[in-house]
Prior knowledge:
Blueprint: H1 6-27, H2 33-47, H3 55-67, H4 71-83, H5 93-114, H6 122-139, H7 141-146, H8 154-159, H9 167-172, H10 174-196, H11 204-226, H12 230-233, H13 240-255
Amino acid sequence: SLFFPRAIRDDVRTLYAFVRTADDFVDRIPQDAKGFQKFCEEYRACADGSECISEVVQEFVELARRRRIQRDWVDSFLWAMEQDLSKAVYTDISETLAYVYGSAETVGMMMARIMELPEESLPCARALGRAFQYINFIRDIFEDAAMGRIYLPFEELRAAGLTEVSEECVRKNPDAFNRFIRGQLKRYYEWLREAENGYRYIPARTLAAVKTAADMFNYTASVIQRRPISVLERKVKPPRILVIATGVRNFLRLTI
């Protein structure tokens, strides 16, 4: 949110606090299913007009009303988070994309509302959320597997010649792993190209922030594309100095 204009930045932080809180309930060890259900119940009660106890929920509900964030988007997001309490393996791309819609595409549309973009931008906002989530799945494949989750289509993993997501399996079948990961990256690049069609709807000052985020995900993708096994060795992400330098460069290019 650092590179967004101030008016947008505050709303982005409010949105982030809400989605991060929901995610934390299902990602902590052990998971807090009761806490998550209570969080969902409070959100729904607050959205229906009851008094809010949680400041995070209250600020988000106010944001949703002010920025016209649709209730069904929020419900879909919470549904996806709930899947993390029980569903472990996503068998095919249709299952993966159902989860991605709730967990990321809805957030992309919420961001479009915060940026006050036109309705015709929403398909591109969904594509951007989808692309960002997918590169996270690729980058975090071993981290997620350690929590018992496989978001990338398991049938495609098996078709590539792998039986599980483990260091032992990957070390024994490096070519199969490379083939699988690079195949998944094709989807990321395809969706990102689709999302870029929506850049024309975004004001220059705001686009600098969006473009910087996309550039950093592309950095991660390029590192993994060159050497897929890197996702086993470390969490692939751009150094902070690169993030700042890219943000400044995009700001100067787009606003001056």
